[in-house]
Amino acid sequence: MTVAENEAEAVAIEEAVARLILPVEALLFVAAEPLSIKRLAKLTGAGEVELAATLARLSADYAERGLVVREVAGGYRFASSPLARDVVESYLLPPRTTLSTPALEALAIVAHMQPVTRAEIESIRGVNSDSVVNTLLDRTFIAEAGRKDVVGRPMQYTTTPFFLESFGLSSLDELPELELESGQALELGLSQPN
Description:
By secondary structure, this protein is of the alpha+beta class. 48% of the residues lie in helices and 13% in strands. It has helices at residues 3-30, 37-44, 48-62, 85-91, 101-113, 118-125, 130-138, 161-166, and strands spanning 67-72, 75-80, 116-117, 142-147, 155-159. β1 and β2 form a beta hairpin.
């Protein structure tokens, strides 16, 4: 590509950003869930390159404001700035309830090993996990993801987009690595299928 072609492409993207910034800003404002670039492309009829440039511009424009553009759960949405967290939390009374340590343990197991059955969660935790799994289902951090093809066909669970959003993750790839001792196997105590 020549210098002239590069300059022409840059101008075309700038023009697209100027045309797209208003509708994309409005869509991010009214959307109840994060919007992916593909979804934005479908809604606006624009290309993904132009939308990525538009989102970058919006992110830069809002970087020092009370609202910021966040990339979460595979999409983009407006969120309150982390710098305004204290005042926003004091407004949103009653304070958000936190998950218990057993619920966080079960949620971490589901996040790292999904899809996973209740018996697999219990095998790792070493205790009955009915209550914490039900809590995680009720609070929509996890969801049913079909039955495992083994004897008894137990239900499997996966995390939800709400989980990613709640923990500020754009994808499961951002989960922290499991900290296992060298040579330590992650044993589930599961029987192998025949």
